[in-house]
């Protein structure tokens, strides 16, 4: 049954927020907006779709290959056929926090 | 043959430095001192020894279970029998950088 990703906050100390996301086949991380710059560290390989206001794109992640994104990103993630686990590290205290929302659609 | 861990810097942008460490059985991360607070994200499970000025301690890491440590930590890591991969994220721009070295021994 496709459902919501399981999100577990592992560190949240005002400087960083570290959340582990575990997705089964077809699970989603519902529409959300990133208030802070963040780093994703895939724990497993992953194939998924990212849905933005401009459309859908198929993406791949490789275990141990982190990638960094900026504040303001707004999207939904829909997992593919394989379970996928990643760690998201948000840089809460760094200067880079998003300005006003760019897209009214809220999760 | 026991050797040095393979270290690959993946992000180094003045705000954070992200390095992937890959260790074979018995490989080491030679004696070093952490200048910045850091977060370790294990990609695989790991069993290893940490050697400090006060002695050795056996430790375990679990894939997807990050742990945070402070600047100033000074140690060597000696891997156990299984290959171990982890990602280290150093918070370079945050206020928490270490003061003078506490232990003269250099790697």
Structural account:
2 copies of one chain form a homodimer. Chain A has 107 residues and is an all-beta fold. Chain A has one domain (6-91): Jelly Rolls (Sandwich). Helices cover 0% and strands 53% of the residues of chain A. Chain A has no helices and 9 strands. Chain A has strands at 6-12, 16-23, 28-33, 38-42, 46-52, 55-61, 67-69, 74-79, 84-91. Chain A has a 5-stranded antiparallel β-sheet with strand order 1-2-9-4-7, with no helix packed on it. In chain A, strands 3-8-5-6 form a 4-stranded antiparallel β-sheet, with no helix packed on it. In chain A, a hairpin with a 2-residue loop joins strand 5 (46-52) and strand 6 (55-61). The two termini of chain A are 20 Å apart. At the A-B interface, strand 2 and strand 9 of A face strand 2 and strand 9 of B.
Short description:
Chain A is mainly beta and 107 residues long.
CATH superfamily of chain A: Jelly Rolls
Oligomer: homodimer
In the CATH hierarchy, what is the architecture of chain A at level 2? Sandwich
Distance between the termini of chain A: 20 Å
Rg result of chain A: 13 Å
**CATH topology category name of chain A:** Jelly Rolls
Structural class of chain A: mainly beta
**DSSP helix count of chain A?**
0
Low-confidence stretches of chain A: 100-107
Instruction: Report the principal-axis shape of chain A.
Output: globular
Beta strand count of chain A: 9
Largest sheet of chain A: 5 strands, antiparallel
H/E element string of chain A?
EEEEEEEEE
**Helical residue percent band of chain A:** under 10%
CATH class of chain A: Mainly Beta
Determine the mean pLDDT of chain A.
89
Integer tally of domains of chain A: 1
Please list the strands of the largest sheet of chain A in the order they lie side by side. 1-2-9-4-7
Largest interface, counted by CB within 8 Å of the partner chain's CB? A-B, 22 and 22 residues
Strand content of chain A: over 45%
């Amino acid at each position: 049954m496709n459902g919501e990703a399981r999100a577990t906050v592992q560190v949240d100390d005002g400087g960083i927020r570290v959340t582990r996301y575990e997705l089964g086949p077809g699970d989603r991380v519902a529409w959300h907006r990133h208030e802070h710059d963040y780093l994703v560290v895939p724990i497993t390989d992953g194939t998924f779709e990212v849905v933005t206001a401009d459309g859908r794109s198929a993406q791949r992640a490789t275990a141990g290959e982190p990638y960094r994104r900026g504040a303001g990103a707004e999207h939904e993630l829909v997992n593919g056929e394989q379970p996928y686990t990643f760690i998201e590290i948000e840089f809460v205290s760094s200067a880079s926090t998003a300005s006003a929302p760019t897209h009214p659609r809220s999760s």
